[in-house]
Each structure stands twice: as structure tokens, then as C-alpha cells.
DNA sequence: CTAGGGTTAG
């Protein structure tokens, strides 16, 4: 942790204003005679080489140092040089240098000096730190000056101790300073808090802070502002946050704007440290005190969530803030964060809608916002619109920069519009914003993947003096493979792979082209370590695949990295185990886990949680328990997520969780409550609802939906609809699942309009309930129509929905339709059902593919074969 | 280098 520099503090204290010239090693030989040195002599000649031979006596050294009063760097190097030559500067020499350095406010240098001294040790120095302080003190006659000097020196010493992690010494020394009534500045306090913090002494921190705001030791407002700045600038925003409340209550920050600044700083600090929950809490607190947060606070929180990959949290925050909806205070920074969130979630149309909204609200938008917007258009395949928007931006007076152009050029290339891409390059030249290497790389790669001649672009680059790099070649090679031009890719590879960096393009190209086996084949042949991104791309593609064969290969990638001594990223282990879990092969996962342990790699919380979840899903409860014990044994503390997974099968785990001081949240309670209802223990479930509310945890849509579902299951329609009303009263909007539950228990009530009004799209679950119901009451035509409607609205049928329809057709004698849909299902390679919801189906469909094949081959009348299918499908 | 949790359908 770096404590320096603290620019604001230095500034406030009026430091660093006088900066001596950084002249370091030009040193006069005259210094070694006992005569006085004049400044004009200093640069004349020589160095300190004669120090050893000269046997400078103490008086001599001191006298020389006196002449260096105006040049602290010179004094420092003089001292260093004496030491370097095996000399032993006296305590007085040190004292003299320190006084010089101090008078120039070079606090950092001072600390360095102390660090060196402490490292060297008392023995080797010939004096102790206390000796030194005494000498320094004695040499200053003016009491007031002495006071100041010692304060500053001890502060630097405290800092030095912290820097070499001698926390106790630092704290002790600081207490000494306090007792003597010396004046330590805010910066020193920051250092001491840092020491306590790093020692893990949270009680000490609190005590320290309490004292700091107590009446006897109260300081000036500026001090506290500096303190907060220092804490937040050094990753101790939490401490800064703790400080706010007492400061406010003791009315120390009288000026409201100071309080606003302090809160703002703490919130921004918390966001930087990714402590978003606390940041939001601080924001609430701030508002409760009647302080208006400024726009930077909002953008910090939104951007913090985004960087944390919590996109929906960012959006939720934005949507729920009234003042942000009041449009008044949205600035381009917030706007671009929000747009980017949408894009990173893959919601490109949403991003565009919001962009348009922003624009209609007359919010000033900058080229960052525009860039996200036309990138979104490109991702949606609307290149023309993207170009249009690009032009509009220019009309709005924002002239595009190289990045804007590059985005657009990449977009053109991605959609096969190389000519336009090239036109844009020409335009860039005309506008005096010549393309850089990134632009050219994008263009060359884009040409290649569109089967255009990328070598033209390479030539163009050369002519321009932009030298193609290995990145360029990789992008072209990758593009060629994507375009299916394997031979050309290989040729280019042969030509440029001298440094060995271009397999990347080959492997990535095959990955992108979906030819994972080919990619793996090339990869495994390489004898030498590859760039990390290659391992990662290949590994990720293999992991994402559905069959075990590919996951096996993903594992080989990791093993290869081990062999070659390339450190796989931490996340790769967890991802691989996650992949094995996804295909329900806990055996393989466990085997790999053992290999990890042999390498002394401890699986992390995520990994254990995935394993436990999978075991629970597969009903291997003892094994889940084994993992649970194992993680505890290894000192990995299960968190609320782990407990949620366990609670699904074993609600009694609640005791253990509370014993471990893990706080339940709304997810956890929802699971628990649901589990107890399923176990027919309504009392316990109700008790939990109360406990949750008492604990200040607010039930959300999911909780309410679960409650509604469970009361319908208990045949208590009244209670179910009461809960639905309560939910509405609390302004918690139902979602598609809520409506699915309602529909499932009241199949006649398709609340199509109501949903539309709320902007809720019907999903595959919802349609399935509809289809199933229509089939059940014999309205197969209607079911077919709904199935069609579903497809037309862009909702992909899945295994369950198809099965429902086919079964319904068969049951009602629509044999031809059943066959038609069956075939359609096969053609679409319908994904197998996922997760627990369809566990029973998985079990029953294991033998299904065979039957499908035999049916196809036999070409016998549909009736018979459908009968076969029927037997496997109609198990309820 | 975006890995883990809650509610719904046959």
C-alpha cells in the first residue's frame, strides 16, 4: 500500500511548493577539506571517492553539512556516500542531514532515510533512534521551532515504521508523540490508522477514531477533511466512513458543504474499493441528514456496479433514483455508464432506447455515449443506422475521434462492408485524424474475414509507416480461418511466425469458426508457452461446449499449462470444475480437484459452492456434505450462497449458518421458506417470513411469487390472492414468473394485456402453461396457434414446451401434428432440459434418441412409431 | 478474463 503521495494534503499544508533542483550526484571535492565551500565551487570537479582515504573527522563532516543547508539532495547523497564507502556517519551527522531535509519539507526523503536506518539496525548505526531524536532536539534552541521540528521528524519516523510493517513500533511512537503534546498532522494520523488497519486491529481503529473526535483532542475542521481524504485515497474508505457519523454528531463539520464533500469523498472511495453496498448505505445516510448528493456520487456508484459486472444493479440504482429520473442531473458520464451496462448485458436495443431517451431529454452526450450507441447498432446488425448516428454526432458538433472511427470501421467490416470501411479511412485522412495501428488492425482483420485481400491493407500500412505487428498478423490469420481460407492462413502463419506468436491467430480462428477439435489439435502440438489469451480463448470455448469430450480437452489445456509452467488464472480451475458439474460429472470434477490439491491449489468458495450445488441437484447428499466439511476444514468460510444451496435440501442447516455468523439475505429466506412449504411445514415457513421482516430484509418479487405459488398449492386461493394484493400495495411489480404462477393455478386467465402494460414479455414457461392447458381441454388447434405465436414473438421453444405440445397432440389424436412437431423439434436440435425443474424428464429421456433413430429408419406408419414415443413422453 | 444462490412450466 502506498501512502505517498498525498497531493491534497501536501498542498493543504503548503508543502512541496519549494522544490529544490533535483541535482543529485554532482559533488564537490572541496567538501573533504576542512574549508568552507562556496556554491560556485560545487560543480567544479570530483566525487566522493576520496572519502575513505580522507578519514574525515566528525567536525569536518558537520562543517561540510553546514554548507549544504540549501541543498538537501546534496546533503543526502553526501551521507549516503560516506556510508557507501564504509564510513560510519555519527549521530550528529544524521541529525544535521535530517534538519536540512526537514527544512525543505522533503518528508518522503526523511522517511526513506529512517527506513534505511531501521533496516540497518541500532548495532550497525552505532546509535538508536531515540538518541537521534534527542540530538535533533538538543540542537534546536528555539523551543517553538524545536517542537515543530520534532513533530515532523517523528511523523516521518512513524511512516517509516509502517512502511516496513513494524506496526507496533509505529503505534507506540505515535502514542509518545501524542503524550508529549506534539502536533501530528492529518497525514500522520492516516499512517497510524493504516498501521492499525493492516495489523487487523479493528478495535484499535475504533478506539483511535473515538479519541480523535472527543472533546479534549478536537482539531480543526480542515484536519478532518484532510484525514478523510487521506483515508479514502489509501484504500481505507471504510475507516473514513466510520468517522463520518461521530463527526456529524459532534458537529465538527459545521459547514454543510464540508459535510457534503466528506460524504462524497467517502462514497467515491468506497466505490473505488468496490464496496458498493456500503457506498449505497452511506448515500442513504447522507440523504437522511438532508444533504444533497452531487452527480459525482451517483456516477461513482453506477460505474462501480458496472465495473463489478453488476449491470442490473447499476441499472436498478439508476432507475430507482428519483432525482436521476428527474433528468436534472444526468451527465454524460452517467449516461455512458448506463448505456454500457445495457450493452454488456447484451441488451443492445435497450441501450439504444435509453440513448434516444437521453437525447430527447436534452442531456448533453459526448463521444463516449455516441460510441456505445453506434456500437450497439452495429451489434444489432444495423450498420446503416450506425453510420447515420455517427453523422448526426458530427452535426451536433462533436467531431469523431480515432476511436469513434475505429468502432465504425470495425462494424462495417463485421458486416461485410469493406468498401465503406476503406472510405472511412480516407475520410480520416481528410479530417486530419490518421488511422492508428488499432484502426489498421481492425481493418486488416476485417478484410481477411470477408475474404477480401488483407495484404492490400498490410501494404497500405507499410506505406504509411505504420508497421504491422504480430497483433496485425494474428488478426489477419484469425480472419482468414473464419473465412474458411485455411491455406492462406497457414501461409501467412509460416511467413510470420518466426517469433512464435502467431499460433494465437490460428487457434483463435478455429475457435471462432467453431472448429474446436482443430483448434485443440494445433494447440497441443506447440512445444513452447503461448500467449495467455490463447489458452484462455481455447479453454473458454471448450468449457462452453456441451459434451464431455470437449471438457476433457479443456482440462488438457490446463494440464498443458501446468507442464509448460504457465500459470492458469485462478478462475480457470473453478470454470473447469463448473463445466464438469454442468454435465453432471462430479466424478471428473472431484478427480481434477485432487489434481489441484496435489499442486497445493486450494479450491475457492465459488468452486466448492458449485460442487455442493451439483451434488444436491443429483441427490448425492452425503457427497455434498463431504465437500461442505472439506471446505470448512481448509478454512474456507461458506457464505450465504453456499448455505442457500444447502438449505434447499436441508433447512436445518440454518442453525449452522447462524452459528458461523453468516447473515441471511432475501435469496436465502426465499429458499428456506419455499423448502418448508414443500415439507408441509407451514408454521415454520410463516415463522421465517416474520423473522425475515424483523431482520429488515424486504421480500421481493421472487419471495412473493413463491408464497403465492405455495398458497395455491395448499388450495388457499384467498390467501394467495391476498398476498398478490399485498405485493402490489408494496409497489413490487410482478414479473413473468409471477404471472406464470397465477396462470398455472387459474388457467383461464391469460393476463395478456395486463402484462403488456407492464412491459412483461411472455417467456417459454408461460407459453408452455398455456399450451398445456389448451391441450388438456382438448383445444389442440388453439395450442398449435399459441405455439406458433410463441415462435413468432421470438421465444424459442425448448424441450418442455415441445414435449407438452406433442403429448397434447397425441392425447387428442392429432397424430400427424405430433409427428410434425417431433420432427421440427429434432431439426432444431432442441436443447435438453436444464436443472432440477426437469430432472424427471431427463431420467425418462435417456433412451429417447435411439427410438428417434429407429423410427426414422423404419419409415413405418407414424401411428406405430408415435405410439413408442408416446410411451416415453407421457410419463407425468 | 465477467465461474456460485431464491420463484415458474410437462
From TrEMBL:
Repeat is among the record's keywords: yes
Key words, A-Z: Repeat
PROSITE patterns (alphabetical): PPR (PS51375)
InterPro entries reported in the protein's UniProt record: PPR-containing_protein, PPR_rpt, TPR-like_helical_dom_sf
Positions with biased composition (Polar residues): 867-876
PANTHER family linked to this entry: MEMBRANE-ASSOCIATED SALT-INDUCIBLE PROTEIN-LIKE, OS03G0201400 PROTEIN
Listed name of the protein: Pentatricopeptide repeat-containing protein
Species classification: Eukaryota, Viridiplantae, Streptophyta, Embryophyta, Tracheophyta
Amino acid at each position: 500500500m502506498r501512502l505517498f503521495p498525498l497531493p491534497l494534503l501536501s498542498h493543504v499544508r503548503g508543502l512541496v511548493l519549494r522544490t529544490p533542483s533535483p541535482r543529485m550526484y554532482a559533488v564537490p571535492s572541496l567538501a573533504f577539506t576542512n574549508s568552507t565551500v562556496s556554491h560556485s565551487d560545487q560543480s567544479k570537479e570530483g566525487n566522493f571517492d576520496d572519502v575513505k582515504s580522507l578519514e574525515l573527522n566528525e567536525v569536518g563532516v558537520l562543517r561540510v553539512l553546514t554548507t549544504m543547508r540549501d541543498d538537501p539532495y546534496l546533503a543526502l547523497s553526501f551521507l549516503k556516500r560516506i556510508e557507501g564507502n564504509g564510513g560510519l556517519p555519527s549521530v550528529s551527522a544524521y541529525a544535521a542531514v535530517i534538519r536540512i531535509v526537514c527544512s525543505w519539507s522533503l518528508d518522503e526523503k526523511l522517511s526513506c532515510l529512517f527506513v534505511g536506518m531501521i533496516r540497518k539496525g541500532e548495532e550497525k548505526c552505532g546509535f538508536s533512534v531515540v538518541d537521534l531524536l534527542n540530538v535533533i532536539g538538543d540542537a534546536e534552541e528555539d523551543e517553538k521551532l524545536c517542537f515543530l521540528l520534532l513533530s515532523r521528524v517523528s511523523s516521518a519516523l512513524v511512516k517509516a515504521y509502517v512502511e516496513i510493517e513494524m506496526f507496533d513500533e509505529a503505534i507506540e511512537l505515535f502514542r509518545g508523540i501524542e503524550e508529549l503534546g506534539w502536533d501530528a498532522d492529518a497525514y500522520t494520523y492516516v499512517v497510524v490508522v493504516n498501521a492499525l488497519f493492516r495489523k487487523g486491529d479493528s478495535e484499535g481503529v475504533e478506539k483511535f477514531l473515538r479519541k480523535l473526535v472527543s472533546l479534549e483532542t478536537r482539531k480543526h475542521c480542515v484536519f478532518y477533511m484532510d484525514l478523510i481524504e487521506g483515508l479514502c485515497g489509501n484504500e481505507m474508505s471504510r475507516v473514513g466512513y466510520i468517522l463520518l457519523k461521530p463527526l456529524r454528531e459532534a458537529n465538527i463539520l459545521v459547514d454543510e458543504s464540508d459535510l457534503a464533500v466528506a460524504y462524497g469523498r467517502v462514497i467515491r472511495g468506497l466505490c473505488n474499493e468496490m464496496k458498493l453496498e456500503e457506498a449505497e448505505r452511506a448515500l442513504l445516510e447522507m440523504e437522511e441528514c438532508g444533504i444533497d448528493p452531487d452527480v459525482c456520487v451517483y456516477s461513482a456508484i453506477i460505474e462501480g456496479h458496472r465495473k463489478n459486472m453488476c449491470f442490473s444493479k447499476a441499472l436498478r440504482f439508476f432507475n430507482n433514483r428519483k432525482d436521476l429520473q428527474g433528468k436534472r442531473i444526468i451527465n454524460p458520464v452517467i449516461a455512458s455508464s448506463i448505456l454500457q451496462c445495457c450493452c454488456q448485458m447484451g441488451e443492445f436495443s435497450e441501450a439504444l432506447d435509453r440513448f434516444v431517451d437521453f437525447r430527447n431529454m436534452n442531456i448533453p452526450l459526448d463521444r463516449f455515449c455516441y460510441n456505445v450507441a453506434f456500437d450497439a447498432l452495429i451489434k444489432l446488425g444495423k450498420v446503416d443506422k450506425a453510420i447515420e448516428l455517427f453523422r448526426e454526432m458530427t452535426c451536433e458538433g462533436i467531431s469523431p475521434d480515432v476511436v469513434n472511427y475505429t468502432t465504425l470501421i470495425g462494424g462495417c467490416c463485421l458486416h461485410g462492408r469493406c468498401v465503406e470501411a476503406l472510405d472511412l479511412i480516407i475520410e480520416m485522412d481528410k479530417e486530419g485524424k490518421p488511422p492508428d495501428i488499432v484502426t489498421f488492425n481492425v481493418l486488416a482483420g476485417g478484410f481477411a474475414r470477408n475474404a477480401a485481400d488483407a495484404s492490400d491493407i498490410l501494404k497500405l500500412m507499410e506505406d504509411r509507416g505504420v508497421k504491422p505487428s504480430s497483433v496485425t498478423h494474428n488478426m489477419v490469420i484469425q480472419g482468414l480461418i473464419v473465412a474458411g481460407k485455411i491455406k492462406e492462413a497457414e501461409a501467412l502463419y509460416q511467413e510470420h511466425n518466426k517469433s512464435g506468436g502467431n499460433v494465437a491467430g490460428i487457434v483463435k480462428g478455429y475457435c471462432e469458426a467453431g472448429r474446436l477439435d482443430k483448434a485443440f489439435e494445433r494447440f497441443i502440438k506447440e512445444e513452447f508457452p503461448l500467449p495467455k489469451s490463447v489458452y484462455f480463448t481455447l479453454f473458454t470455448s471448450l468449457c462452453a461446449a456441451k459434451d464431455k469430450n470437449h471438457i476433457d480437452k479443456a482440462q488438457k489445456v490446463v494440464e498443458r499449462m501446468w507442464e509448460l509452467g504457465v500459470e492458469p488464472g485462478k478462475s480457470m480451475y473453478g470454470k473447469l470444475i463448473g463445466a464438469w458439474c454442468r454435465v453432471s460429472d462430479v466424478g471428473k470434477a472431484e478427480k481434477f480437484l485432487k489434481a489441484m490439491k496435489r499442486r497445493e491449489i486450494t479450491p475457492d468458495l465459488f468452486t466448492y459452492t458449485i460442487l455442493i450445488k451439483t451434488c444436491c441437484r443429483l441427490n448425492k447428499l452425503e457427497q455434498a456434505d463431504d465437500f461442505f466439511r472439506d471446505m470448512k476444514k481448509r478454512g474456507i468460510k461458506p457464505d450465504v450462497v453456499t448455505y442457500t444451496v444447502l438449505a434447499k435440501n436441508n433447512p436445518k442447516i440454518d442453525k449452522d449458518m447462524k452459528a458461523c455468523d453468516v447473515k441471511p439475505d432475501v435469496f436465502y429466506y426465499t429458499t428456506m421458506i419455499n423448502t418448508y412449504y414443500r415439507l408441509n411445514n407451514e408454521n415454520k415457513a410463516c415463522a421465517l417470513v416474520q423473522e425475515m421482516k424483523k431482520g429488515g430484509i424486504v421480500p421481493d418479487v421472487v419471495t412473493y411469487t413463491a408464497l403465492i405459488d405455495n398458497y395455491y398449492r395448499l388450495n388457499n386461493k384467498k390467501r394467495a390472492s391476498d398476498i398478490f394484493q399485498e405485493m402490489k400495495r408494496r409497489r413490487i411489480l410482478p414479473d413473468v414468473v409471477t404471472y406464470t404462477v397465477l396462470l398455472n393455478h387459474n388457467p383461464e386467465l391469460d393476463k395478456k394485456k395486463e402484462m403488456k402494460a407492464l412491459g412483461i414479455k411472455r417467456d417459454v414457461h408461460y407459453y408452455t402453461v398455456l399450451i398445456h392447458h389448451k391441450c388438456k381441454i382438448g383445444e389442440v388447434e388453439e395450442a398449435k396457434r399459441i405455439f406458433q405465436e410463441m415462435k413468432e414473438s421470438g421465444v424459442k421453444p425448448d424441450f418442455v414446451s415441445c414435449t407438452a405440445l406433442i403429448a397434447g397432440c397425441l392425447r387428442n389424436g392429432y397424430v400427424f401434428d405430433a409427428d410434425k412437431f417431433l420432427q421440427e423439434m429434432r431439426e432444431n436440435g432442441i436443447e435438453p432440459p436444464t436443472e432440477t425443474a426437469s430432472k424427471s424428464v431427463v431420467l425418462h429421456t435417456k433412451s429417447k434418441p435411439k427410438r428417434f433413430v429407429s423410427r426414422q429408419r423404419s419409415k413405418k406408419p407414424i401411428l406405430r412409431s408415435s405410439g413408442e414415443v408416446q410411451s416415453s413422453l407421457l410419463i407425468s
